[in-house]
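Q: Give me a backbone?
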Amino acid sequence: MKQSFYGKLYSQGYEIGTDPAKIVKFYLEQWERLAKPVPVLEPMCGTGLNLIPFLQAGAVCDGLDASPHMLSICQRKLDESGLTSHLYQQNLEIMELPQRYGFILIPGGSFGHIYDKAVASQCLKRMREHLLPGGWLVFDVRPPTFLSIFGQDGLVDHDLVEYPDGSTVFTTGYWQHLEEGRVVRKWNKLERFVGNHLIEAETFDYHERLYDRSEMEAELVAAGYDEILVTKAFEQNSIPVDKDGMVFCCRSG
């Protein structure tokens, strides 16, 4: 695998305890600031936490994800909301869609889950090739200073979550710091219990690559982006420092 993959159990619990309002607001503001370019594409759209608000704001917006489990939940939410979007199950590095877009977004640090640098570089190129002339890619990543917020190398931790269907999911996680701290890995084993009975289990191998600002800017230049603006996540017109995530706004020529 070259990116973190979301399985059935993890996808079902993905939104439990999640409040994406600040991130959604920021990305909608970026879209509005750029004069609402359309159509919109959200690669790595997951369960639709950002896709659906963009549709509700009036955008023509498509979604793409590698996980069929995440897309299934996203489609169900679209149906329940009476909204329409084209959803594609593809890996981003080999994305091949029937149209080009005015605005592509990857919020919430998801781009870092493509932890193989060669694959990440290919993803940046594929997205540029799917942008209309003058179109924008907006995404955020976290710098190496974020390493301290993750579990220490070798740490084992546990989590217990009550799912909406009444089952309980117990997770055991093992942390690793790879490539001299540039990639964080957490190997998870999820076990679903109903009462005292184990009924289902899966593994989730989480990875996230951390980027220096200059490193990501060089990757974007190599991928062919003409204009690169950097702001602090998720505040406009500020320079990323210390433990602030970085948002990159990149224009296709």
